[in-house]
Amino acid sequence: MMKVILLFICMLGTVAVSGQFAYGLTAKTELYSRYSNPQDGIASPASGSALINLGLGPKIWIGGENFSLSGEAVAVISPFAVSLGDFKGLGAVSLPVMAKINIGGLSTLNKEGKFGFSAGVGYQWTRTELFGLTSKFEDQDVSRKYFKNLIGEVGFGFGMGGFAGILYLRYGRDSSARSNIFTLGLGYDFNAPRLKVTTDSEF
Asked: From 160's CA, which of 10, 35, 145, 167 has a CA 20 to 30 Å away?
């Protein structure tokens, strides 16, 4: 992970010399998410949701029309996440923080509409059974705290004039804690300065 961070910093320094800086928001609609807590040998570690998984957070970009680097931090709430192995409670929250490489239309700094790709790495903090464990599992000393996973994400989508729509796949794991996460979702990036230029030019 340290090598990846150093590589990203070197790329950031190179792009920053001639790149544009921008800020905005990223929103998420996760179509399916599955979380596996560190195993305790008592309760099923898994929890998942395919219903109303919504996220929002800040995002920054630096780069040009065909290539940019970005950083984002998102809070995703899944109120109906549940374990099918044994019901312990409802809800989950995830907090992915990532650095990304964006190519083509996903740079969000482009004027013309085009398709593009993105790839990123980071960490995600996750907690399941957000709305409380049932007394049955509390009595067995089962707890649900935030657990951290190293994550990787790839995406494909279309962007134009400061907006980008992305279909993404995210996976993460921690071998020592025996935990993992998997997410398939849709992302929506809003580059504020570029959107302002686009809307101002239309009027």
From this structure: 10
